[in-house]
Amino acid sequence: MNKNNNNLRKNSFKEEELKQYVKNGDLKESDIQIILEYQKLLPVLQQEDGSWIDARTLHKELKVGKVFANWIKDRINKYEFVESEDWKLTFTKTGKRKNVKINDYSLTLDMAKELSMVENNKIGRISRKYFIAIDKAFKPRRLWNIDRWETLEHYKNYRKIINLSKKELMPSMPDWCKKRGDQGIFMGEANLLNEIIIGMSASDYRFKHCLPKDEPVRNHFNNFELQMVAELEKFDTDLIRLQEMYDYEERRKLLGKKYQALLDNNNFDSNDLE
Predict the structure, then answer these.
(1) HSE of 67 in the Cβ direction (CA atoms, 13 Å)?
(2) Cα torsion for 79, 82, 85, 90, to the nearest 10°?
(3) Which DSSP symbol is given to 94?
(4) What is the pLDDT of residues 227-264, one digit of tens each?
(5) Most-buried pick from 15, 182, 237, 244 (CB within 10 A)?
(6) pLDDT at residue number 50
(7) Sign of the alpha-carbon torsion through 220, 223, 229, 234
């Protein structure tokens, strides 16, 4: 998965995203405020190998009296934290004094929670609650990113098939699509799926949710809606391949039937075309 893709969720959590996880039962309402407030002080780095917190930042926020280098080495030895599993060196440089090396560490959320707990002060207890909450939020985010990535991968083939068939597709497209030329064909197909899955066009969805004009609406879909996008794109691809049999409105009806079958958990094979 390409972590640099702008359609994936990464970096700081936004309130809208967290509210979606609350609605799905992954978070509690009380988790939202603590995440929004403390992620500014203790930002968590999302990487392919997990979620990590900078040890120096944690040391500073916990207001530990010891020098950082002594503190982190003492904690690693005392609680038997394992390199690569609980912590990793992220940067080593030579200090102002010759031959003195300065190490920076990244910690897993579990290690950060434990270090916060053993400090046994108010700040440590709050930090521990924050790490518990943000860890809960990362779990549904990872699943959402997987579902979103699958739609992006499926769309490559979907777009290819549409492009190859645009001459045959154009005659039965709505007038508003024809006025936009080739781009209108892609917009028309996307509109078909959006109206079936969310009951409205992308522009209406943006207006309803106060989104920017160029914001991809599917970045705001929930997991189920993303899964439906992938399923219907695959099904529409098969219908387009048979474009001599099905025009735009006929495909709309078949896609609606496919969607209802998925809702009902029925097996509806793409070969069962009527």
Answers:
(1) 4
(2) 100
(3) E
(4) 999 999 999 999 998 867 889 999 999 999 999 999 98
(5) 237
(6) 83
(7) positive
Kindly give, in sequence order, each residue whose CB lies less than 8 Å from that of residue 182, ignoring residues fewer than 6 positions away.
Answer: 163, 166
The span from the CA of 48 to the CA of 165, in Å, is: 38
Continuous H helices in the chain: 15-23, 29-38, 55-61, 68-78, 109-119, 122-169, 175-178, 181-197, 202-208, 223-241, 248-263
CB-hemisphere CA count at 13 Å for 43? Answer: 7
CA distance 210 to 203: 10
Query: What tens digit of pLDDT does each residue of 163-195 get?
Result: 999 999 999 999 999 999 999 999 999 999 999
3-state secondary structure of 107: strand
pLDDT band at 274 (very low <50, low <70, confident <90, very high): very low
Q: What is d(CA 231, CA 144) in angstroms, rounded to the nearest whole number? A: 16
Distance between start and end Cα atoms, the chain: 37
Name the residue type at position 220.
H
Task: Identify the three-state secondary structure at position 21.
Answer: helix
Q: Which two structure tokens, joined as six digits, stand for 191?
A: 């509109």
Long-range contacts of 139-146 (CB under 8 A, 24+ apart): 139/26, 140/21, 140/24, 140/26, 140/27, 140/223, 141/9, 141/13, 141/17, 141/21, 141/46, 143/223, 144/9, 144/222, 144/223, 144/226, 145/1, 145/8, 145/9, 146/1
The C-alpha R_g of the chain, in whole angstroms, comes to 25
Q: Given this model, what pLDDT does residue 94 score? A: 60
C-beta separation of 27 from 21 below 8 A? yes
Q: Which two tokens stand for residue 218?
A: 């599917």
Residues paired with residue 54 on neighbouring β-strands, in sequence order = 106
